[in-house]
Amino acid sequence: MPLRVVPLGGLGEIGMNSMLFDDGESALLIDAGLMFPDDTMLGVDFVIPDFGVLREAAARLAGLLLTHGHEDHIGAAAYLLKEYDIPVYGTPLTLGLLRHRLEEYDLDGAARLVTIERAGRFRLGSFDVEAFPVCHSIPDGVGYILRCGDGVFVHTGDFKIDPRPPDGVPTAVTRLARLASEEKVTALFSDSTNVEREGYSLPEAFVGEALSEIFEGAPGRVIVAMFSSNIHRIQGVLSAAARHGRRVALCGRSMVRNVATALSLGCMRLPRPDILLPVEEAEALPDRKVVVLTTGSQGEPRSALTLMALGEHKHIRVREGDTAVLSSKFIPGNERAIASVINHLFLAGAEVLHEKISEVHVSGHASREELKIMIGMVKPDHFIPVHGDPRFLIRHRNLAREMGVPHAEVALNGDILEFADGKMSRAGKLAVGRFFVDGKGVGDVESFVLKDRYQLSQVGMVMVVLALSSTTGEILYGPDIVTRGVLTENGSEASIEGAREIVVRTWEDSGVEARKDPAEIQTDIRRALRRYFNKRLERKPVILPVVLEL
Amino acid sequence: MPLRVVPLGGLGEIGMNSMLFDDGESALLIDAGLMFPDDTMLGVDFVIPDFGVLREAAARLAGLLLTHGHEDHIGAAAYLLKEYDIPVYGTPLTLGLLRHRLEEYDLDGAARLVTIERAGRFRLGSFDVEAFPVCHSIPDGVGYILRCGDGVFVHTGDFKIDPRPPDGVPTAVTRLARLASEEKVTALFSDSTNVEREGYSLPEAFVGEALSEIFEGAPGRVIVAMFSSNIHRIQGVLSAAARHGRRVALCGRSMVRNVATALSLGCMRLPRPDILLPVEEAEALPDRKVVVLTTGSQGEPRSALTLMALGEHKHIRVREGDTAVLSSKFIPGNERAIASVINHLFLAGAEVLHEKISEVHVSGHASREELKIMIGMVKPDHFIPVHGDPRFLIRHRNLAREMGVPHAEVALNGDILEFADGKMSRAGKLAVGRFFVDGKGVGDVESFVLKDRYQLSQVGMVMVVLALSSTTGEILYGPDIVTRGVLTENGSEASIEGAREIVVRTWEDSGVEARKDPAEIQTDIRRALRRYFNKRLERKPVILPVVLEL
């Protein structure tokens, strides 16, 4: 049987990365990530791939290989493991972060987590798996070389090529160059996230230096907001703070937890034993001795940074003389929330630095020139861009074609790619889907429910209760009218009274027979009220009439 | 009496620009704009200032001065004119665009529109009003010099300093420099929109040249999307198309209407009489002879551009060989919608150019160096930044202070600034508000309603109807359960059945007396169902129980 490669998520979207490799004897997954909901997914916590498509391959499913510890690569693993009891392979930090997630689902005891080296090589069913280190915005990242009867396959995971990485372990260019010289690489699957950025990404060390300058020059406290998974950058903050005689107070649950995990795994070290400062003691120190390191860089409304800016945080209130640094990307969709927190920081008197005006953030993904290095180094016969919106995949494919890769193709979620004798062909499409996770429900919130939620959010609802006698058709009770999200309490009495009259008139106008048919009179009431609200207010609330027959 | 200046909108936000000047004898407004809703304003069409605060000044309200024809400067004029019958002063194009709006409210007949020259000077009550031309992303823009007993005041409107403006009329630097040399300017109110951008804004001519190159080189059709009010740029498209032997098909209602208005007012001219191409004939021409000029640059889901990308437009379907150009800003909040339309354009086979990767858009607002020119030229004694988020106003104030303006201050909406004998003081705050416009309702959708809509959008609703005998407390009907936005139709039967049982059990558990009190049993049902859904689904739908007593 040929090798089948099927992206379950992440090809045609940002997040929810997961890719199946199945040679008919064994199958494995690279990553099981989640996607954060966009603003059309009302009330949805997050989105995961539909792992139900793996059922057919369940018996030969040999394991899950993780590339790194970001949510869009590990965040759906708990849902995968609930259905399939398979071992999970990852580096220490990746598994450490996964463990936090599994604890939330009470799965930490049952899961079989296998720690691998960043350059480890091991057997997984019929596959020879070789990890190789990659630099990214979280430590301990890897890509994978998979070898099976049908060829040699390289998956980069998320990567950049940083010449001076904070942990001293560069992306494995030497290993990949040697691979290409010794073996023919059948296909390369490479990270497309930053294909639209020209040139090279900046090294992480730039940010450390920029922060160091800020810590030196700032007249008072410096409040740095970032993602708590960016362990390298947290290390950079600690080192820079130590250099300039500042101590660091950690804010935000995940910040405190991830620092503890990274320290216990040796992924981070304290430059001075007393560098960390309990947040409740921050006010006791002179302002120039304090750095506050917090989550909330995306302007999340209840995050520590927002509360600090609004003066509602328990320990830290932003004031004149503070410098706030957003050391993170403005993630598309969050711009308004981020702008809002920046405005509040300014209004509270702080100076604010962020990636648009200062070098306080660098990306963890390869820019165009680095993508070219990867393609040029691996010299694959086939090229499949991974991770990103369709336009990124198309641009990345075009780049590979320009570089002379013989077969560069775009695949989207569900596309079945077959590799046999070093040749790729397309074998149709797997009906991959996605599940919306809302509370305990997985997949029961569908487009149907979201459509209702959307409609309710735009127009509100009007509920009518009317009880009729089943014998005479006379009104026994009502009409009772309840609205939500249509009218204010004050000044809406006239509108409600008018609606009540409309219902009574509809009842009067209907024949005696119709009055005995709740379904028919419900339809009439709905139609009449729709007309009424549209004419009176130019609004079209959801109308829910309940006509009882007694 | 001193002159009172009060911003009614636009100071502390983007949009809804309106500023009151009131010297006790006469009062006038500069602009009456709307704001587009952000994603927290569910179902809101747009937002306008609360002009109710003008009631006290109504008798001396002498007129509305418009700076230019963008919605955030003229879009609330219809609502102002409904309440106050005052004359409106504006240049020909500004009034032409206002007329479109007034027609929609059946106000076009009644309104007193007074056409002014771009460098006109006239009396308005106790004020001497002098308009001066400014360059912006719409033609026919002006700023105003207001003179009254309390001083000389300059309001820039929205402006940039373009050395080679498309209509040949530069921002009135000579006039303003002469003003400063002849008279002492008491206060300058200046556009803060782009204070975060270093250097100079690029001239509009750059875009014309970039488009010309694209029209020359593109292998097939070119589809250009932009705001239909950007008359200069539309002119640029027509001229560039004529130069390269292409004809231009207009798509989108406002595009067709604004071109007609601009042509009739002489703000635009056709480079060739046959340059415009009926859109239904576009397919008959060779692809290299066609430009499609359309709205939809913000990724609006039902716009012409989106329909073209999805293959759902009546006349134009995007295909391999097309080049799409988004000649506009990525407005914050719209990034995801814009990314979505770009993805669909790519998937349909088009090449896509936009401001992030190509010089196909320039801003209509002054960058930092131009803002410095304005301040340096006008040499005001006081400086009040206008138009923008708090952080822009604060940065712009800091810039003025660095430049040595004696009194630079931030004012926010409602702040009362008093000028007497050339001195400014603060005289408290006017309770300015904003009205959400939703259909015909103005101001009846308040935070209360939006909170309900938000809650419904996140969690949906569960409605329960139960009829009890008023004498025995026995159940005569129900419980009937209707949900919206909580559960799907399929697979939710068990949840609904469970909810029904909970209601019956609640009824059973309540004492005989409670059964006769609908309010009490309603509360019990709400509480029980809230617990039930939270436990079963970790969701908290809005629960609306109706208990009838018969």
Give the C-alpha Rg of chain A.
Answer: 29 Å
* CATH topology term of the largest domain in chain A: Metallo-beta-lactamase, Chain A
Structural class of chain A: alpha/beta
CATH-assigned homologous superfamily of the largest domain in chain A: Ribonuclease Z/Hydroxyacylglutathione hydrolase-like
Mean pLDDT of chain A: 93
Strand order of the largest sheet of chain A: 7-6-5-3-2-1-20-21
What would you say the CATH architecture of the largest domain in chain A is? Answer: 4-Layer Sandwich
Instruction: Give the largest interface.
Output: A-B, 67 and 66 residues
**Unreliable parts of chain A:** none
The helix count of chain A comes to 15
Shape of chain A: globular
What's the number of extended β-strand segments of chain A? 26
State the distance separating the first and last CA atoms of chain A. 67 Å
Relative strand content of chain A: 15-25%
Secondary structure layout:
The structure is a homodimer of 550-residue chains.
Chain A: E1 3-9, E2 18-22, E3 27-30, E4 46-49, E5 61-65, H1 71-74, H2 77-83, E6 88-90, H3 92-104, E7 113-115, E8 121-124, E9 127-133, E10 142-148, E11 151-155, H4 173-182, E12 187-191, H5 204-217, E13 222-225, H6 231-243, E14 247-251, H7 253-264, E15 290-294, H8 304-310, E16 323-326, H9 335-347, E17 351-354, H10 368-378, E18 382-386, H11 390-402, E19 407-408, E20 415-420, E21 423-429, E22 434-438, E23 441-445, H12 447-459, E24 461-468, E25 475-484, H13 493-509, H14 512-515, H15 518-537, E26 542-549
Parallel strand pairs in A: 3-5, 5-6, 6-7, 11-12, 12-18, 13-15, 13-16, 14-15, 16-17, 18-19, 24-26
Antiparallel strand pairs in A: 1-2, 1-20, 2-3, 4-22, 8-9, 9-10, 10-11, 20-21, 22-23, 24-25
Helix pairs in contact in A: 5-6, 8-9, 13-15
